[in-house]
Structure formats: C-alpha cells, structure tokens
Amino acid sequence: MMSKNVVAQSPLQRNSVASLDHKLAMAKRCSHEGVVAGAKAAALATIATAIPTLASARMLPWARANLNHTAQALIISTVAGAAYFIVADKTVLATARKNSFRSSPSSNREA
Questions:
Q1: How many CA atoms within 13 Å lie on the side-chain side of 84?
Q2: According to the model, what pLDDT value does residue 107 have?
Q3: Rounded distance, CA 44 to CA 4, Å?
Q4: Residues in the chain where the model's pLDDT stays below 70
C-alpha cells in the first residue's frame, strides 16, 4: 500500500523539491506585493478621479447634460482598474527582477 507522502530518495531530488518550494514561496510573495501595491494605487486613483468627475458633473453644463451617474461611475472605475493592473504588474516584475538578481550566481551579474 502506497502512502500519500512522497519522500525524495536522492539528494538531487531533495534539492529540486526544496528549490521548487523556494520558487513557489517567492512567487507568492511577489504576487502578494503586487496586489497590495495595486490596491493602494487603485484607492488613490479612485479619489483622484472621483473629485474632478463629480465636481465637473455638477458645475459644467455639458457634463451635467451628458454624464449621468452610470457614466460617472464608469469613468471612475475604469481609472481605478487601470491603475490597479498597471501598478500590480510593474511591482510583480520589479520584485521578480530583484529576486532573480539576488539568487543568481555572481558570474551572471556582469550584464
């Protein structure tokens, strides 16, 4: 009867499993940092967009006539979503790049 826990038999297998666990942990940390940075950027973009959008919808005659509540919400949420994805992507890539340089051998850093 086979057990569900697989134990690596050779040192090579043990190192590769440890390496994969380390890579998985680094990927989770990179993505978590991206989510946090993206959420902060989205919150800031929401506030920075909502104030002029709502103010112009009340003060400017063209905006008052053409921007209903749905249009205003669409403008604000589009900017917030774009800010989230742009900042999260840049943060994940920057963190991954930093970690790849940190974990690479010193001979590859000359580039």
A1: 12
A2: 44
A3: 48
A4: 1-15, 103-111
**Residue 17 has what pLDDT?**
78
CA gap 83, 77 in Å, rounded: 10
List, in order, residues 6 or more apart from 82 with CB less than 8 Å away.
45
Instruction: Tell me how far apart the alpha carbons of residues 16 and 23 are, in angstroms, rounded to a whole number.
Output: 10
Average pLDDT, the chain: 84
Q: Dihedrals φ, ψ of 60, to 5°?
A: -90, 130
CB atoms closer than 10 angstroms to residue 83: 21
Distance CA 8, CA 15 (A): 9
Taking the model in full, what pTM does it have?
Answer: 0.71
Gyration radius of the chain over CA positions: 24
CA distance 84 to 58: 27
Alpha helices in 1-111 (DSSP H): 11-59, 61-66, 69-103
